[in-house]
Write a structure and sequence with these properties.
Layout (H helix, E strand, L loop, with lengths): L4 H5 L9 H8 L3 E5 L4 E3 L7 E7 L1 E7 L5 E8 L3 E2 L1 H6 L6 E4 L3 E7 H10 L1 H26 L3 H16 E4 L2 E4 L5 H8 L3 H13 L3 E3 L4 E3 L2 H9 L1
Antiparallel strand pairs: 1-8, 2-7, 3-6, 3-8, 4-5, 4-7, 9-10, 10-12, 11-12
Length: 228
C-alpha cells in the first residue's frame, strides 16, 4: 500500500487535521517492510519511534517467566503503536512481531514531539487513545482473573466484539483473523483447551467459526453464565 498524506487521515490520531497539516506531518515519516516472523520492535527499542501499520498485521507479546508467550494485542492496517514510550521516554516490556508481510511507517521521538507541540488536535486524539489503551489493559487483567478457561475465552470474545466487532445480520463479526493458538496465548491457556472451549461454544450456537472470522450471534450470551 502506498503511503501518502491521505492515508494519514485514515489513522485516528491524525483524522481531524487539515490537508496542509497532514502534508507537513507526512514529511517526517519513513517506511520499512518486514517479512512474516520478523521482529519489528523489542523492549530495548521502545521509546525511539512511533509506528503505523500501512499494510499487514503485527502482534504485541511478552515472554512470561514460565517461558509461555502472552499476546497483549494485535495491530492491523491503520493501527499505530509505540506512542506511549515516546511520551515518557520509558520502555515497554513487549516485543512486536510481523504476522505477515508488513509495511510500517515510523517517526522518531524528536519529530513526534514537534508534531504534538504544533497540533493540539493530535494531543487530544492521543489522550483519547491512551484511555483506550488503559481500558484494553484492564480487559486483559479481567480475562486473567478467571480461573477457568471457559470464562476467560467468553470474556475475551465479549470484549473483542466491543472493540473489533462489526454488526451483521447473523450477530457480530470479529474482524481479527485469530487462530486457536492466538486466542490461547491471549487468554493464558493451552491451544488444546482453547479449541475445546471454542468447539463447545459452537455446539451451543453462541459462536460460528468462519475461515477468517468469528461470528458471535449474541454477545450477551457469552456473559450469561456470569449473570445467573
Amino acid at each position: 500500500m502506498a503511503f501518502t498524506s491521505d492515508f494519514l487521515r485514515t489513522v485516528s490520531l491524525f483524522s481531524n487535521l487539515g490537508d496542509a497539516e497532514l502534508k507537513e506531518i507526512f514529511k517526517v515519516f519513513k517506511e520499512q517492510e518486514f517479512k512474516k516472523g520478523d521482529i519489528i520492535l523489542m523492549e530495548e527499542d521502545t521509546g525511539k519511534s512511533m509506528y503505523i501499520v500501512l499494510d499487514g498485521r503485527v502482534k504485541v507479546s511478552r515472554l512470561l517467566p514460565s517461558g509461555k508467550e502472552m499476546i497483549l494485542a494485535f495491530h492491523e492496517t491503520g493501527d499505530y503503536f509505540g506512542e506511549m514510550a515516546l511520551i515518557d521516554g520509558g520502555t515497554t516490556p513487549a516485543t512486536v512481531t510481523s504476522m505477515a508481510h508488513t509495511c510500517i511507517a515510523f517517526v522518531g521521538r524528536r519529530d513526534f514531539t514537534n508534531v504534538l507541540l504544533a497540533n493540539p488536535k493530535v494531543n487530544f486524539a492521543l489522550l483519547t487513545m491512551l484511555c483506550t489503551r488503559c481500558r484494553d489493559a484492564w480487559t486483559q487483567i479481567e480475562v486473567l482473573t478467571f480461573n477457568n478457561a471457559d470464562a476467560r475465552i467468553r470474556t475475551a470474545l465479549f470484549h473483542l466484539c466491543q472493540r473489533k466487532g462489526e454488526k451483521i445480520s447473523e450477530g457480530v463479526r470479529i474482524s481479527l483473523h485469530l487462530t486457536h493458538k492466538e486466542i490461547a496465548d491471549m487468554t493464558g491457556i493451552s491451544r488444546e483447551t482453547a479449541t475445546r472451549v471454542l468447539n463447545n461454544l459452537q455446539h451451543q450456537n453462541v459462536l460460528t467459526v468462519e475461515t477468517k472470522h468469528y461470528i458471535v450471534h449474541d454477545p450477551d450470551m457469552l456473559m450469561t453464565p456470569f449473570m445467573a
